[in-house]
Amino acid sequence: MRKFMKSAVLILAAVTMFAGCSKKSDSNKSMADVVVEKDGKISVKYEEIFDKDYYTEEDLEKVIDEDVALFNKENGADSVTKESLKVKKDVALLWYKFANSDSYVKYTNDFVKPEKEMKLFVGSIKDAEEKNIKLGGKFDKVGETGTVTKDQLENKDELTVFYTNSEMTVYVPGEIVYFNDNVTIDKDVVTTTADKVNYILYKAED
Prior knowledge:
- The chain has 206 residues and is of the alpha+beta class.
- A hairpin with a 2-residue loop joins strand 11 (184-186) and strand 12.
- Residues 1-26 have low confidence and may be disordered.
- Helices cover 20% and strands 32% of the residues.
- It has helices spanning 2-5, 57-75, 101-112, 125-130; strands at residues 34-36, 42-49, 80-88, 91-98, 120-124, 139-141, 147-148, 159-164, 169-171, 174-179, 184-186, 189-191, 198-204.
- It has 4 helices and 13 strands.
- It is elongated, with a radius of gyration of 18 Å.
- The longest helix is centred in the N-terminal third of the chain and has 19 residues, at 57-75.
- It starts with a helix and ends with a strand.
């Protein structure tokens, strides 16, 4: 991904916000730019302006395939895979699937925004704390008023933590139970805030 990610025409939209869009479905999954799967894999959408006559979709796809292979060689087989690439109306729309949150973080920090460290974690409360993610502050509970602290969380062992310090629109695979005040929720899609501590606690789907 080196040549693709560092090209002059690249405009990443993995943090695009879709607030205000009308929704007709019980799920907003199609509106998210970051999709957490049940198995821990993470799909991410990127967009690129593709409006020069000398650009071709075939050349772009070749570069992507070559650099995906390079990233996997350096970081382990299937660390990232190309899910789809479509070019329409001078915009290239690319979906990647990362093997886990660590692969996504490494890719972002190495190739997308090396000047600004992204943090992201998906896992149990116990695993979060082992990685020094302390779950501090107050949490709102979906459907209720008032706030609670970490020690007041109910059914902790059933909850999965999604944590990031970056702005993104995220779909999580399950029922969102708690969130902190840097997060806004529209059904099962969450918008997080840049340069803030963002926590989502959800009950994962079976």
